[in-house]
Specification:
By secondary structure, the chain is an alpha/beta fold. Helices cover about 40% and strands about 15% of the residues. The protein contains twelve helices and eleven strands. α8 links the parallel β7 and β8. α2 crosses α3.
Length: about 400
Amino acid sequence: MADLELSWAVALAAHDRASEHFWSLMEDRSVRFLPQQLAPMFFSTLGQMVAGRGDAAARFAALSVLGRMHRRLGMYPYHGTVVAAAMVDTLRRFGGASWEPDLTGYWEAGCRRVLRLAERAAGALGDGPHVTVAEVLHCEAVSDDVAILTVRPARRDCSLPGQAMPVCTPRVAGQWRWLSPANRARADDTLEFHVRAVAEGLVSSVLVERVTPGEVLWLGPALDVGLSLERAGSADLLLAAGGTGLAPLRALVEQVAASTTKRRVTLVVGARALPDLYDAVALNKLQQAHGDWLTVVLAFSDDRDVEPASQGDLLSVALCHYKPGQAVYVCGAPPLIEAARQRLPMVGVPSESLHLAATFWHAPSSARWTPRQRVARAAASEVASSAAGNSSASPTVSDAT
């Protein structure tokens, strides 16, 4: 079988020139649905999908981006033929010795298939903000493997606290990862992302180690991932955050602070040891500003030098603070989500009060996706099975990989 991945990798090495050529071909054919500034995003995301690269979470993120672009750019089925032809011509031109004649049919069929899935995703996602770019304003290394990126989108952010959005750096064009902002809407329109560099995580490593102020990031549509505060009604909250899973839960605390609904919030933040607590200053400020209704609790799973009340795994410490009637939110790495799904109902937390961050490998039962989102997830699953992809473990919304 012809090697789609190799032909794509070679062309991607000349991404800027290749995406410009791709856009020019469609302009020459009077297919003017794609603005020039969005051509690199569209070209690289489509190519990555056809080449079958990325885990399930990455492919769902990419499909969400293509679906929103399909809807907002007004694409029609006949555009698929021209897009496929432009992709083949571009890969032939920039693929060098990696290009084989047999690849033409594979790429044309792959483009048409992915665009059909994008059309389905467009209907599933519905209307909403367009994809956009964001300027990186600050990059702060807060630990050996975690960085906090502050960005300002070109379009006003309309995401809600607890939602997640696909994020991509042009340094690794076309590879999208889910991140949740750590703040509610600000007057200066900035967003704060917490990113942990994970093992073999190309995108997260680039975001943590290489991205600098002045660069741009690409942002896709924000989606509900099971952490919406609306699900809790007016109930008090118990928030359990593991690692960078703190980001969306910190945004929920900010939402409570700005709300007229009176409720008490207990935020339990887990880390392996005290040096791993990367956001201690912000947590201290939150506690000081909202101590009348907010309690911040620390949990260290492998640090015997802290006070005994803070020793233990995150869920065990969180359960010590659980009170019947609270809505419980959990966000962190996939093992934490799986453990919460199994342990918490067994100790009396009602399923309707338990809200777990989606992993995108499979949706937690408590994350009640809307019918539109279920269709989009089904489409993503179809894409994942239709082409060869990497089968690594999938991240939650809190971790880029």
